[in-house]
Amino acid sequence: MGILVQLPKIPSILSESIVASEVQHGRGPMWKGPVQVMPGGAKADLIVKWKSKEFRVEVKGTGRQGFQNLVAKDVAADVLVWVDFGNFFEDEFDSPVVAYWVSKPSSIFPDSMKISLQNFRKRCGTALRARNIRISSSSQRQRQFEEKA
Question: Which of 56, 70, 108, 127 could be 44's S-S partner, Cβ–Cβ 3.0 to 4.6 Å?
């Protein structure tokens, strides 16, 4: 289905849910140990509570177009996560999905801006933490189910 759509827009709820799951399962590079993750409402996309501290997390998600508008709320967050789906929704096979995590984005991005993923990665430099996310397609899950049956 995604192959018929040109540059599909990634629903924010999808990217946010993936990041929340990564954090809850201990795969968020900023927090180790038990955390609580909840929707952030007007404050942020997500709120992460860890060791009696509260962190505002903003989440961006893109397909292969790899461009985002960073707005004031994104830059002011405690943590900014860019989920790069690449060609995941366009290919017939599973493409890699990578989450790029950066703490204190305001120290890197003083203003709102439109930016490419390539420039985002370059500007963040060593402050950036990349994590692969494993998402299997429905056809792959179906094959795995059929192999077990």
Answer: 56
Question: Cα–Cα–Cα angle for 72, 16, 102, nearest 5°?
Answer: 55
13 vs 140: CA distance, rounded Å: 23
> From CA 99, how far away is CA 122, in angstroms rounded?
15
What is the radius of gyration, based on Cα positions, of the chain?
A: 16
d(C-alpha 86, C-alpha 97), whole Å: 7
DSSP state of 42: T
CB-based contact 44:56 (threshold 8 Å): yes
The per-residue pLDDT for range 9-51, each reduced to its tens digit, is 788 999 999 999 999 999 989 998 889 999 999 999 999 999 9
Q: Which tokens sit at 79?
A: 């943590």
pTM here? 0.85
CB 124 within 8 A of CB 108: yes
The topology (CATH level 3) of 2-148 is Trna Endonuclease; Chain: A, domain 1 (3.40.1350)
